[in-house]
Every structure is written in structure tokens, then in C-alpha cells.
Amino acid sequence: MPAPSPLPRYLYKILPSAPPSTLPPRLPLSDLDRKDGYIHLSTSEQVASTADKWFDTFSELWLLKIKYAVLAAGTDGDGVVQADKKAEIRWEEVGRGCFAHFYGGDLGSGNVSEVLKVEKNGTWADSLSLEW
């Protein structure tokens, strides 16, 4: 499935709890990411519907904001592009749209640009204003 056009400037990883205050070079994978073999990511337009589907009962979420270009270059969580095992983004069709999946890499201090705490006020769509 092709990537959206134009490409997003940022991708987001939704976390149900706060990551460490100082991000390590490699964050642990969620059970779902480990099971599926890739890291689930969302564009700014997908975060609210994903949060409504999977995190509806939560009153706050944490988002890892990641520059698309950094992940597209294959940058791993430690900030290094591995020549022999390049991490990559694949855009794949999932029941309700085309989502970014990060294969072969981790998220961490070397590729996450910001951590955002979001408190739910009404719906997640009401609570979120994210950069594309």
C-alpha cells in the first residue's frame, strides 16, 4: 500500500503510561508490537481514532512524537542506522486505513523527538491537536 501524499512530517506512538523521564536508547516493545513483529504508529489524523478504539477507558495517554524522515532513514532507537539490518517504515492496509509500521528497529532517545502527555477532555478527538 502506498504511503500517504504528502508524507507526514511526524508519526506518533501511543503509550498507555508514561515512559521513563529520560528516554533510554531502546524502549521496551508493547506486547502487541512484539507479537506482530513491528511497531504500530499513527499519523496525526489517525491518533484520535486509534485512541478511541484501543484506549477509550484511559483518561490520559502519552505520545511519542517521531520525525518521519528520521525513521524513514532507518534510524534505530539508539540513533544509529545499522548498515546490515536497516529498520524501515512500511505503509500497510489495516481494516480502517493505511498505517505506518516500523520494522527492524526500536524507538528510543535516538529517534523520538518529543514526549507528549495528553489528557482526555471529552473524546480523544476533542483532546488532540497534533502536527501532521
From TrEMBL:
On the tree of life, the source organism's domain of life is Eukaryota
Q: Cross-referenced SUPFAM superfamilies, in alphabetical order?
A: ADP-ribosylation
What is the name attached to this protein's record?
Answer: DUF952 domain-containing protein
Q: Name one Pfam family in it.
A: DUF952
